[in-house]
Specification:
The complex is a heterotetramer. Chain A is of the alpha/beta class. Chain A has two domains: about 10-115, Beta Barrel (Elongation Factor Tu (Ef-tu), domain 3), CATH 2.40.30; about 120-250, 3-Layer(aba) Sandwich (Rossmann fold), CATH 3.40.50.80. Chain A has nine helices and 15 strands. Chain A has helices spanning about 5-10, 45-55, 95-100, 140-150, 175-180, 205-215, 230-240, 275, 285-290; strands spanning about 20-30, 35-45, 60-65, 70-75, 85-90, 110-115, 130-135, 160-165, 185-190, 205, 220-225, 250, 270, 270-275, 280. Chain D is of the alpha+beta class. Chain D has one domain (about 1-335). Chain D contains eleven helices and twelve strands. Chain D has helices at about 10-20, 95-100, 100-105, 115-120, 170-180, 205-215, 220-225, 230-235, 280-300, 310-315, 320-335; strands at about 1-5, 20-30, 30-35, 60-70, 75-80, 85-90, 125, 155-160, 165-170, 185, 245-250, 255-260. In chain D, strand 8 and strand 9 (about 165-170) form a beta hairpin. The termini of chain D are far apart. Classes of the chains: A alpha/beta, B alpha/beta, C alpha/beta, D alpha+beta. At the A-B interface, loops of A face loops of B.
Chain lengths: ~290, ~270, ~160, ~350
């Protein structure tokens, strides 16, 4: 696959430090679960905000950092329709995410991006969409969901199947409630067997089984699947049984990244750079990649 | 050395199933490179001479090779000591490994299990002197002023690119995550320069204190020729002089660091 | 400690040694406490870092102290036989024996690395020790900023 | 033509240093010949292939790409300028220069890395035609040659039986270098020595073709048996360009570093969640071979290997890229393969 000169042209700032992030401040900080945090980040410079939203489409990712701790790549969890801030949601796992968690409202972090490709939602206009997500993989899908809800009239039926190991592991609980109440969204929540609480009203079972049971129609519908590799693997079967063509099912790959800009060489799957050619792939593309690299 | 007997024994242990793989050495255009023999008919490739400086016991830590156990290892005395030490540290079990005993003094010791290996070491190689060239060099460096010593090591460590070939080559460096990769907190600077290089090389040596059998594989693997064996031998000498321990002779021995004696010296403690 | 802070000690006449002391909670820290409550004066050059036991003192701590700007490091704990955890100090003693020689061999002057046993009752010993090693380090001068153990400025 | 006696290379280095060049040349250091900054008194060793490659001076092992002043929880970004002194890479090898095409591409194919570019622009590349080779050399198997001029600003050609060198400019930078050398070079005539002959060891097209079909193959475990997973080969390689980004900090300052990294290391691809797409050395070594002979050719229409043989020379475990390629090429001859 050859480089896309147009994209290179659009995003390159000539003569700059490619790795220099901008500084943003934390406007809001929310605990989603015991170890998952959402930060709302505000731009300090209008030109930076404008430049960001000129490029940003749902599915792209950024590098969030704290000087002294480092930077980490994760998705942008807010939609471009909310164009005054960006949100990110991450699990506290290592040095950078711990440093990010230690930051308080009003304090600054660094940001680079947006990078990577995006979900082609303009092509989805008039179509129904089925979202399938597991655990901490809801954030990239959440950006798409809000983007579509903010432009609700342009799209067909929305179905969301979201599961986590336990009730405590479900992220965006207040938004799940909002979606639950809306008549124009069908939300199916599930937790793994044993992860339910006494007052749990959702499904109990793994995401692929719940999807099979919900059996959304594949007609005029695209599917978006995000989750751990094992969930994606087992979701492919029900998708196939429901007649979703691989070319209309999308996912994101969350490979380890450092540079985010196609240099550092660690996110490759075969000859593709996930940071440049992804992170959004169709299942059709995914199946043609060397499976041992996933 | 009787290379034919080595080849016959290698073929024999493969043929009768005592080993699934023999790890030794072969020739490649004058270089000595490791040989992984699984078929008795290929045992003729094996050879051994003084140019075989790699420590094949390092392959015991390689996950992909675990399915070839029991494995027979062409081992010179320093490598035999590594194996005994690995057994002492519970990294290999008696049934995992066989030794095809070779040595640089042309002796061939045949097929040995770990117990026989330890017995051989105690009988024939109980008094392996430290490399006299290294000892001489250590004396020279010790005679320098602290400033000269630090100058010498600054120059040596400046070449380090942090490729960690030293770590990979060492059978005793089997941690699944090395201290240099721990980043909460970042104990050792990741930059291939200055204090990070110093800390890495010092801590690498120190984590092998009382565990190094002076096989020399780390220094042989260093692309930049950093004299790592000077550090290892200083530690090995002190272990022997201060605690009276020679490592790699007893598969039941407690680790040097990790055990203690009320009689340990403490001249330097106020 | 940072590069900038370390630099302030470099001019010879104003040199005030910066000594980092890693001490165990049960003996030396209590001893240092006794020094204070007994109102025994001692040099103010020492920064005490309390750890549960000398057995917890990883050689990396010592390297980190030198890296960050210490002119000398003191490690101190319970006398042999007195360890709160039975044998932590015996374990530590073995490590120090080897590590001290290794540092000496790689160019860290042994006049910058001290070890002692100070019990909870030895308030006076602690004061004398600190005064003595402060004098030794004062004599030895600031730790060479080009020593490979010292954090080098980023270039 | 411009000539210099073989034993006067240091005079050339001195003249260039006086003219403001940082001179990088093969120099023996503690028993190892490596490319390093030349200083007065150091002999230039043209008789051994240096263990490191010219990449070190374009893409250094550690480089600062960000810098902040810290004050408690606050930080202030500071400008970072690439450290790019005017440099001549003197008596490097054609296989070093051949790697520049790939490095140029990787650091510019989409986003542009100005740290690399600043150094690249400041470098004048003067490879020496090889009149000797060792068992590890295989440039001719990957489209190179001992007298290849790709990437060179000037060529140093051994002449008159190795007694002198012809310095032949190829670019404006090369001409500027000749001007700067001034009287260190003499005008005269000399007969260039023939380059060494290096036999072709494998058919690289067969290798690339096999790789395109054999991500899954029983051959991989066998090919990677000896690898112990260090970064020596990647760090010695003139084209390997993978890096890590790490922060280092004191209480008052932090820097963001771009450090060399290698796909041979187990942590290279380890996800924060614990999943590792390349969980063993077999997968890692496969990626290394694939990257050089399949992915890079597919993506950039270049080979990721210049046949310098440094990886094999430095490997403590006897791994050899040319041997692996030969075994792969043999495989294509051996078995009538069926499409998978």
């Amino acid at each position: 696959m050859s480089p896309d000169p147009d994209q290179a042209q659009a995003v390159q700032q000539p003569g700059g430090n490619l790795y220099a992030p901008i500084t943003m401040t934390i406007a809001e900080s929310r605990d989603e679960t015991y170890d998952v945090r959402t930060l709302r980040l505000q731009f300090l410079v209008e030109a930076e905000r404008a430049a960001f939203f000129e490029k940003y489409r749902v599915g792209m990712f950024g590098l969030y950092g704290v000087p002294g701790a480092g930077e980490s790549a994760f998705c942008i969890a807010s939609p471009p329709t909310q164009d005054q801030y960006i949100e990110c949601t991450f699990r506290k796992a290592g040095r950078v995410t711990t440093a990010l968690c230690d930051r308080e409202v009003g304090q600054a972090i660094t940001f680079r991006g947006p990078y990577g490709n995006f979900f082609p939602i303009e092509e989805w206009k008039g179509k129904n969409i089925v979202f399938i997500a597991g655990g901490i993989a809801l954030p990239p899908i959440r950006a798409v969901i809000w983007n579509i809800l903010d432009r609700r009239d342009e799209f067909g039926r929305l179905t969301i199947v979201y599961g986590a190991r336990t009730v405590a592991d479900l992220v965006y609980k207040h938004e799940l409630q909002q979606w639950q109440k809306r008549s124009d969204v069908k939300l199916i929540l599930t937790v793994d067997p044993g992860g339910e609480t006494d007052d749990w009203k959702g499904e109990i079972g793994f995401v692929p089984m719940v999807l099979e049971k919900a059996a959304p129609s594949a007609e005029n519908t695209v599917a978006v699947v995000c989750g751990p590799p094992i969930m994606i693997k087992f979701t492919l079967l029900p998708l196939k049984q429901l007649n979703f063509p691989d070319s209309r099912a999308y996912t994101t790959l969350e490979n380890r990244m450092k540079c985010g800009v196609g240099k550092c060489g660690r996110c490759n799957v075969g000859s593709l750079y996930v940071c440049k050619d992804g992170p959004v792939f169709t299942i059709e593309q995914l199946k043609n990649l060397p499976q041992g690299d996933l | 050395m009787d290379v034919d007997r080595l080849r016959q024994d290698a073929a024999a242990v493969l043929a009768d199933g005592r080993a699934r793989m023999v790890i030794g050495f072969r020739d490649r255009a004058g270089d000595r490179v490791p040989a992984f023999i699984t078929d008795a008919e290929q045992a003729g490739e094996l050879l051994y001479d003084e140019a075989c400086r790699q420590n094949p016991a390092a392959y015991l830590k390689k996950a992909e090779l675990k399915r070839f156990r029991p494995v027979a290892i062409v081992a010179r005395p320093a490598v035999m000591r590594s194996l005994v030490l690995l057994a002492a540290e519970a990294q290999v079990a008696d049934e995992d490994v066989l030794v095809l005993g070779v040595s640089d003094d042309d002796a061939y010791h045949g097929i040995l299990d770990l117990a026989a290996t330890a017995a051989l070491l105690n009988e024939k190689y109980a008094e392996i002197p430290h490399d006299p060239d290294l000892v001489k060099r250590i004396e020279e460096i010790s005679a320098m002023t602290p400033e000269e010593r630090s100058g010498f090591w600054t120059e040596q460590f400046a070449r380090c690119t942090r490729c960690y070939a030293c770590r990979a080559a060492c059978p005793m460096c089997y941690c699944t995550q090395c201290i240099v990769e721990k980043n909460v907190p970042q104990w050792i600077s990741t930059a291939a320069a200055g204090h990070g290089n110093y800390a890495w090389n010092i801590i690498r040596a120190f984590h092998l204190a009382g565990r190094c059998t002076e096989c020399g594989a780390c220094e042989a693997a260093c692309p930049l020729g950093i004299p790592l064996m000077l550090l290892n031998v200083v530690l090995a000498r002190d272990v022997q002089e201060e605690f009276g321990v020679k490592v790699g002779y007893d598969a039941e021995a407690e680790p040097v660091i990790g055990s203690w004696s009320p009689d340990d010296g403490e001249d330097f403690i106020r | 400690m940072t590069q900038a802070e370390a630099k302030s000690t470099e001019s010879a006449e104003a040199f005030e040694p910066r000594i980092v002391a890693f001490v165990c909670n049960w003996c030396t820290y209590a001893g240092a406490d006794l020094t204070g409550t007994s109102r025994i004066q001692y040099a103010a050059n020492v920064r005490i870092i309390k750890l549960p036991c000398t057995g917890r003192i990883d050689p990396l701590f010592i390297l980190k102290a030198f890296e960050g700007g210490a002119d000398a490091v003191l490690v101190s704990g319970c006398h042999p036989g007195d360890c709160h955890y039975t044998s932590g100090n015996y374990h530590a003693r073995r490590r120090w024996t080897l590590f001290r020689n290794l540092l000496d061999f790689t160019g860290i002057d042994p006049r910058r690395l001290f070890f002692s046993w100070v019990s909870a009752a030895e308030g006076q010993k602690f004061a004398d020790l600190i005064n003595d090693i402060t004098g030794t380090v004062r004599e030895a001068g600031p730790f060479d900023p080009t020593n490979p153990a010292r954090r080098q400025p980023w270039t | 033509m411009k000539l210099i006696d073989a034993n006067k290379l240091t005079a050339l280095a001195a003249a260039l240093a006086r003219a403001g060049y940082r001179v990088v040349a093969p120099i023996e250091d503690s028993g190892v010949v490596r490319l390093k900054e030349w200083a007065e008194g150091a002999a230039i060793r043209t008789d051994a292939v240096p263990v490191n490659s010219a990449k070190d001076f374009l893409f250094p092992p550690s480089e600062i790409i960000g810098r902040w002043d810290l004050d408690g929880d606050d930080f202030t970004a500071k400008e970072v300028e690439p450290d790019a002194p005017k440099t001549v890479l003197l008596a490097v090898r054609p296989c070093d220069a051949a790697a520049l095409a790939l490095l140029d591409t990787v650091f510019n194919w989409d986003y542009k890395d100005d740290f690399y570019n600043a150094r690249r622009q400041a470098v004048t590349v003067v490879p020496m035609v090889c009149t000797a080779a060792d068992e590890q050399c295989f440039c001719t198997s990957v489209g190179g040659a001992p007298d290849a001029t790709a990437g060179a600003d000037a060529m140093l050609r051994p002449a008159d039986g190795g007694t002198r060198f012809i310095l032949e400019p190829m670019t404006d930078k090369g001409n500027a270098l000749l001007d700067a050398a001034g009287s260190a070079l003499a005008e005269g005539e000399a007969a260039a020595d023939p380059p060494v002959e290096i036999a072709r060891r494998f058919d690289v097209e067969a290798v690339t073709e096999w790789l395109s079909r054999n991500f899954e193959s029983d051959l991989w475990p066998a090919l990677s048996l000896a690898c112990l997973g260090c970064g020596a080969c990647a760090y010695a390689c003139p084209t390997c360009h993978c890096f890590d980004i790490q922060d280092e900090a004191t209480r008052r300052e932090s820097v963001r570093l771009k450090n060399w990294d290698s796909c041979g290391f187990g942590l290279f691809t380890l996800h924060a969640g614990g999943h590792n797409p390349r969980p063993d050395q077999t997968a890692r070594w496969r990626n290394r071979v694939m990257h050089k002979f399949s992915y890079i050719p597919e993506r950039f229409k270049l080979l990721g290997c210049t046949g310098c043989g440094r990886c094999a020379r430095v490997c403590g475990a006897g791994m050899s890229m040319s041997e692996v390629c030969r075994l792969i090429a043999d495989e294509t001859k051996k078995a009538p393969t069926h499409e998978s």
